[in-house]
Amino acid sequence: MKIKIKTGDTVRIIAGDHKGSEGKVVRVIRDKNKAIIEGINMVSKHEKPSAQNPQGGIVKKEAPINISNLALLDPKSGETTRVGYEVRDGKKVRVSRKSNEVI
Description:
47% strand; single chain; two-stranded antiparallel ribbon; SH3 type barrels; mainly beta
């Protein structure tokens, strides 16, 4: 399945506990069809003491969210939109289906 969301995109969560919240994509995990969104879906992880963190303890991290629960935001209007592809000036670009703007 083709993933149409890339790192740096602004997305809205459309399903789950964080429905309605918006954020920037930090990382896309292609083989698991998931993405990590900045500041969303925070979980507590126990960390062993290490050289970087000599104290150890409980750390808050972003957990991955399934791609199917995300919708890309239109750069022009700020609404959710689907993604299409077009060839413009000899390059294949992602295009918003609502406003026909290049993403």
